[in-house]
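# nightly structure sweep
# worker-07 picked up a monomer target from the shared queue
# config: single-sequence mode, recycle default, output format = structure tokens
# input follows
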Amino acid sequence: MSSPYGPQHAPAGDVGAAIMMIDSRLRSVHDGRTGSDPEQQALVDQFTASLGPKGAEDLLDGACTLIFMFVKWLRMTHEQHDKDVIEYVVPSLVATMRMMPKSVPPEVIPTMAGLVIAAATDLSPNLWRKQYGYWTEEELTPLEATAFLLAEHINRITDDPDFATRMVTEALSSADEG
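# output follows
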């Protein structure tokens, strides 16, 4: 039976902009920069300010699409080893978010875990979240952190610091061709 929260009912959003932001964060971490790079943060702030309400919503939907894509890849990978993605990925993700109280306040961790669990059960993270109302300002950085942490997890599994970004850009390229 089809769920109204299925991915086929969800807008994909601006996946290109979302992966650009996540890739920028990944590169910042791998370049050895710690903390927030003021120049990078200024560029991100300038970019997000230029989006307007529709663009911001598209970026949020794009981040949720990334979460769905990342979790789908993780689910398929874990299933090849007879493991459950929820059992192996969610606890690690939650533990990492708990160590980031400035970026991810404890009260939004259940929502971020819910997004991942929704994706792991083949539901659209953005439609699952939207049933509870509009995004709050407190959820925006944790949403980015969730997508970032999933990408970093994939990169560590594959031992390739660009795997998650490449996977998404290749999917976008093949969608453009098709």
